[in-house]
């Protein structure tokens, strides 16, 4: 049987390939192979792995170009496999580790039950995602690294793709560690920023923005965006926030921002904006993860965002494409 032109078979093969990638990422094989080829026994010793089992995984990885055999029982990284090293530009190790993390893997495998019952199995078994990550700091660190790696192209592309000239104050609502805000502030030395997030998040953001060299131009505000957000911004940013919530809660968040906005302020919603037709889009794959992890969180189409923003007293003025099929929805008060 061949996978050529067969999306079902190709997907089935993909599960096995991911299992091998996950093994390589979790054991840190790419880091150990960074300086050149190793025999299976040498690599197993460094990884703390069972050599015969590792040999089978490496043989599989070699079949789709992640490692390459250099001798009868030795392997070396390919350029693709090098992206599974940690701490290197373009690393995908955290992404692979996060999707292979026990609770995440359970969530994806439980999508049929989530769809049957209309409730996320992940939430029922492990609790809300961010509570789970807080209670499991190792997973939380992997998740943070994954989010930064996943967003790197968008972080770097945001100040290039959107014209922030003339903006005095940018308020990053639920700004997390502040990477988006830092990218814009570095590109616009005259701008000042406000990072608004939960009390547990702000100290980490302060450290990150200090490391980025922009903390002196940033005001840090603690709070809950369901209650209120800081006033006085020329531009408000909601990056990867709205997709975490169903329409009712998303409207509450947008309503809080709208109440804080002046008549000439702008809101930027950074999300995947799905096409209204059935054409392929990365956001549709991400949406299934949202279904698994949040249940009610969802990616939305252009028209769905228009409707959602309208309920909060905002109107879409334009949509700007960003790297990685992400998009920036600009909205203004009505």
TrEMBL record:
Lineage top rank: taxon: Bacteria
Keyword Cytoplasm: no
Gene Ontology BP term (one): methylation
UniProtKB keywords: Methyltransferase, S-adenosyl-L-methionine, Transferase
GO MF term list: O-methyltransferase activity; protein dimerization activity
UniProt xrefs under Pfam families: Dimerisation, Methyltransf_2
Matches recorded under InterPro entries: COMT-like, COMT_C, COMT_dimerisation, SAM-dependent_MTases_sf, WH-like_DNA-bd_sf, WH_DNA-bd_sf
Domain O-methyltransferase dimerisation: 9-79
Residue intervals of the O-methyltransferase C-terminal domain: 113-314
PANTHER family: O-METHYLTRANSFERASE CICE, PUTATIVE (AFU_ORTHOLOGUE AFUA_4G14580)-RELATED
The protein, known as: Methyltransferase
